Amino acid sequence: MSIVVRDVREHELDSVLALNNAAGPAILPLDAARLRHFFDSAEYFRVAERDGTLAGFLIGMGSNTDHDSSNFRWFRDRHPDFFYIDRIVVASRRRGGGVGRAFYADAQSYAELRYPQLACEVFLEGGNDPALLFHGSFGFREVGQHVMEEAGVRAAMLMKPLCSYAWVRETYGDALPEASWLTRPRVPVRRVHDQAAQRPTGTCP
């Protein structure tokens, strides 16, 4: 069955919270209030469906966001403009099935129209070579390391240049074409039926 990536719906937040807190030490835990904050304010908050069930989620935001993560601040202190992946979680039974790559393709197709780089981190404690290999195969490179003051965990700080950004800026500037998936920011989806336009996915050659 195909993977469908779409904006999160309000009634799915309990399931998203359970996925996050079952993900293990590679993902910081969340509470309901924190997740609600992301739902109300995150620029990008999407879920993946496979076989009609929730397979994971990704939360991201631009560098001009007022976000209190020390990892986010680390990037912002060193880089002026980027799209930050705060967290990506894939259900354990769906790992290795392409959900993570579908998320990164979708997030990149969104970000490269607006930002020159993608940023994220991978925790180094406990052995996380599969995650580092995954990100490396997707074009991310380590630009430093940081110990999170709020968790005491060391993270590899990763960035990926977005090759289409310069062309988009040179061609369109701040005036992207009139298409709903380009011009409309994410807003919380509070109805059962998803009205979000599907964004195309893809990666740079």
UniProtKB/TrEMBL annotation:
GO terms for molecular function: acyltransferase activity, transferring groups other than amino-acyl groups. Residues 3-164 form the N-acetyltransferase domain. InterPro entries: Acyl_CoA_acyltransferase, GNAT_dom, UCP028520. Signal peptide: none annotated. Pfam families: Acetyltransf_1 (PF00583). This is Acetyltransferase, GNAT family. It comes from Lysobacter capsici AZ78.
